[in-house]
Write a structure and sequence with these properties.
Order of helices and strands: HEEHEEEEEH
Number of domains: 1
Shape: globular
Distance between the termini: 43 Å
CATH class: Alpha Beta
CATH topology: Nuclear Transport Factor 2, Chain: A
Radius of gyration: 16 Å
Number of helices: 3
CATH architecture: Roll
Largest sheet: 7 strands, mixed
Strand content: 35-45%
Helix content: 25-40%
Length: about 170
């Protein structure tokens, strides 16, 4: 069983809260999701590789444009459920940590409440590498989810196909 120092316990709590705040931002439009990333942060999943805070924000801005273009009433309702959260601190650097978690994503076309969901849109093994900045705030340096299961969500499949072409 792992042991935490009091400083690590506080940092683990901060990192978990940042992860949950990130999920909330994703679920409510991702209009300022870039703020969670370091300037040199990266987002990598499947065939997608996006570098830098501005690039990551641009990725989500493009996704929002696709929602308006492809979804009923130009809206999509989704919820990211992050469970099995584990924080692992870098043994050599107290200002670095990795968050491991399970991301269960439910989403559907149109405004809330969306009805008739049969299964999650996707379930992924999440990995967030984090760095504490000189001002004491933690930021993500890498978000690298690995899809474990993909449900019957046509929009999710479309976005995966569009991004695979890049």
């Amino acid at each position: 069983m792992r042991k935490f120092t009091p400083e690590q316990m506080l940092a683990a709590f901060e990192l978990q809260q940042m992860l949950y705040d990130f999920a909330y931002e994703l679920d409510h439009g991702a209009k300022d999701v870039g703020r969670f990333y370091a300037e040199d942060g990266a987002f990598r999943t499947g065939g997608i590789s996006v570098e830098g805070r501005a690039g990551i924000q641009g990725f989500y801005d493009k996704r929002n444009e696709n929602v308006k273009k492809y979804q009923k009433d130009g809206e999509r309702t989704g919820r990211h459920i992050f469970t099995n959260v584990r924080v692992v601190f870098d043994a050599a650097d107290a200002d670095r940590a990795t968050i491991h978690f399970t991301n269960t994503n439910f989403a559907g076309e149109g405004p809330a409440p969306v009805q008739g969901l049969g299964s999650p849109s996707a379930i992924a093994d999440g990995v967030m590498e984090c760095r504490r900045e000189p001002d004491g705030h933690w930021l993500f340096t890498l978000f690298a989810p690995k899809q474990a299961l993909i449900g019957e969500d046509d929009f999710m499949k479309l976005m995966l196909a569009l991004n695979a072409k890049k």
